[in-house]
Design goal:
seven-stranded parallel beta sheet; oxidoreductase activity; binds NADP nicotinamide-adenine-dinucleotide phosphate; alpha/beta; 7 strands; Rossmann fold
Length: 254
Amino acid sequence: MASRICDSVLVTGSNRGIGLELVRQLVDSPTPPVQIFAGCRDPNGQRSQVRNHANTIQKSLTYTTSPTSIAEASKLVETKLKGKGLNLIINNAGVNIPGSLAETGKQEMVDVYTTNVVGPMLIAKDFHPLLCKAAAQFPHQTSMSCSRSAIINVSTLLSSITTCPENFSVSPMYPYRVSKAALNMLTRCLAEDLKKDGILVMSLHPGWVQTEMGGPKAPLTTAESISGMMKVITSLTEKDTGTLLDWEGKNIPW
Ligand SMILES: NC(=O)c1ccc[n+]([C@@H]2O[C@H](COP(=O)([O-])OP(=O)(O)OC[C@H]3O[C@@H](n4cnc5c(N)ncnc54)[C@H](OP(=O)(O)O)[C@@H]3O)[C@@H](O)[C@H]2O)c1
């Protein structure tokens, strides 16, 4: 029997797009996680596509720009885990305001940074005790993996400072690129900081995907992107902590 990706996972921004497909494929995996926490900012709203699924998926209200919402979500998850730790957080919720230099002002920069960087930072902070608990409960105390304890920050190729000259003219996107480069630094800082706790932290680029954000011209369906991401997620070890990989497992230069 295939081994389980992990016992428990929180996916933020799982209303639609990549987050929704992540939850779907986690549920449909041969040995699904026992508990999947689907973070949605409006779990009962009309746009919410994620559905409660037997006991496996539990929707939690996670408005990732609100410290109160994050704190409440961590309490709810802690209660549902009944003394166990949380193995995996996928910080998927994100926004993009396509903005050239002329179109970008303070508000655009701050709004996108708040969702794409401050949210994942606060989530890491509030859920840190639960991740530590999961890491401590793992039998192989020296190894790192998503089945033990990990944070995956969903980043993008457009965050890469090295490859910016190759793709800047097609997608200028100042707020988005700058925020995701900062998210990568958050990944690096957390990877260093949480090594001592046995928590793996990495950034993952899903490819260019057909979602509201990616648009209809994107070459990848959510199903294709996420099935690649799942293979990467299951294969991660300590050598991958602090890296930026794409949905096929290829390294992207910072
Ligand atoms: N699509 C691509 O080609 C592509 C490429 C590279 C990276 N990415 C990254 O992949 C991730 C998912 O993108 P996507 O294409 O699935 O985007 P999407 O279709 O626009 O979906 C974004 C999701 O994030 C949620 N969200 C946004 N702001 C939030 C907040 N403050 N609190 C909680 N949830 C929030 C949205 O919730 P609501 O439903 O409530 O609006 C939605 O569920 C993002 O981090 C994005 O940067 C996407």
